[in-house]
Amino acid sequence: MDLSNKVAIVTGSARGIGKAIALKLAEVGADIVVNDIPAAAEALEGTAGEIRALNRNALAVTADVSSATDVARMIETAAGTMGHIDILVNNAGVTRDQLVMRMTDEDWDTVLNIDLKSAFLCTRAVLRYMMKQRWGRVVSIASVVGIMGNASQANYAAAKAGIIGFTRSIAKEMGSRGITANAVAPGFIETKMTEQLDEKRRQAMLERIPLGTTGTPRDVAEAVAFLASEEARYITGQVLGVDGGMALG
After folding, report:
1. Residue among 10, 90, 120, 156 flagged as catalytic
2. Whole-model pTM?
3. pLDDT in tens, 183-197
4. Catalytic annotation present for 234
């Protein structure tokens, strides 16, 4: 894969899966705009520094991607500084787990805004750049939970299922303009979020995975890089599971 002369924006890339994606895209030649919330500014600059160490250009932009105003500023800054935008990775996300009967309006709205609305805002903002050049890649991070559902995660499952429907709609709208849209659906990936699970819950989840092991942020990043590449030029509207077979049930 060769992404030389391409510019990618990766939301939520101060750490975890987003950081792994940003670094992988840089490894295969892309210049990267990394993004996260202002509270993660220091970690975000760290990610940008690691990208520059790979001899790629990096721009760190703090923004709340659930805010249309912030997104407009981020995209304008990215395009103005880097010259063009070729790849968007909608990765930003949070969880607020709770049973539906105990879930607050705030729990619901926070997850839907950050995990789903942000993908709409960022994609809408970059499409005009991609349409002009008649080339673009939109890769959004969904989840196995958006396919299977999960107790105590109705908000997260709804957001990630929404990502899948959104992705397929963009694929139909933008195919004639040389723009593809795909989603990656991770399963049980080793991140700070999953580190908080107790051993009993970890084992229960591992028993549902045919490969019998967890994934890593790098596994997700490899899938994203492929979908962003020219090798995936004829793939659009698809959901690529990176879950060790977990979604098989």
Report:
1. 156
2. 0.97
3. 999 999 998 777 777
4. no
